[in-house]
Amino acid sequence: MMNIGHFLTKRAYRDPKSEALFDVASDRRFTFEELNTRSNRTANALTSAGVGPGDRVGLLLMNGVEFVETFFGAAKIGAINVPLNVRLVADELEFILKDSGTTLLVYSHEFAELCAELASRGDKTDITTWIQVGGTAGDGIIDYDEWVGAAADTEIVADAAGDDHVFIMYTSGTTGLPKGVIHSHNTVMWSILTGTATVDFRVGDRFLNSLPLFHVGALNPVLSNVYAGGSTVLMRSFDPSESWRLISEEKVNSTLMVPAMLQFMLKTFDPAAYDLTSLRWILSGAAPVPVSLIEAYTALDVEIHQVYGLTETCGPGCVITGEDAMTKVGSTGRAFFHGAVRVVREDGTDCDP
User: Fold this and answer.
1) 66 and 41 Cβ atoms separated by less than 8 Å
2) Least enclosed by CB within 10 Å: which of 59, 227, 345, 352?
3) CA–CA dist 297, 293 (Å, integer)
4) Angle, alpha carbons 159-164-170 (nearest 5°)
5) What is the pLDDT of residues 141-156, one digit of tens each?
6) What does the alpha-carbon distance between residue 114 and residue 282 come to, in Å, rounded to a whole number?
7) Is residue 106 within 8 Å of residue 72, measured between CB atoms?
8) Residues 33-51: tens digit of each pLDDT
9) Is 0.90 topped by the overall pTM?
10) CA–CA separation, 157 vs 173, rounded Å?
């Protein structure tokens, strides 16, 4: 059985000098060896803070290396990550933090005021340790860089693996309060395996990630890149012109965009300024992709692969690749390799072919 955190350990052993992550906002690049070392420091810092197997670690973070290294560090020691939607207000976060049993929260300095409000509510959450990334940490708040910097970089060997839980991601569903979808090391591993067996990921590929990592559609490619030896070009947040620049200058091979993002990008594309020869395909999900948009990107020699995903499967559901995008307009495609799909009537019986 494999611990998901040790995927990074293994990749650092196999390809120590290959680039694992380019944190665009901070203009910092990390090899797999460097990212693994940072993750080990985070793992040891968490252990020193009293976090152990089964404990919940909240991540209220903008996209950046801190999210990635904390996720892997927590996984290594058997703790359970709780990625949090950065757009939520205090009342919404209070419910999720209490419901999940989160005891330690790592948050970006932009949310210092929000976290101060949560802290003032006392036992309405179970958080005992507050870790701030960036800015000036206030009284009782731990500075992330100092906290991690003081920790050892030795590998943690945890028994957590298999059906042990590795993260809880909250999804609003359609009614009522958010529901926590629990994923284990096994379910994450199978989501990675089904993705790499279905979609054209290649060793050494460069993937542009501009969607928020608290969403499974953004988190899954980061994990898959570590498994497959690919590099993640990580944007703090989406910007259409900046996306084209990064695709061109960083020789990006693939990315994931929702249709609205594709539309914004199309409006800012300058064929004289951007080189798209490295870009093989763009995954697009969350809504159907209009035919006109598929045609526009086809004219740029870029395939649009429509994907249907869900938090409950750790991402992969169905995908329709470029060659079928026009002949099967409106279809969500076939199930991923290690998946199956049924189409049923209202009474639950199978529909006719």
Assistant:
1) no
2) 352
3) 6
4) 140
5) 999 999 999 999 999 8
6) 35
7) no
8) 999 999 999 999 999 999 9
9) yes
10) 36
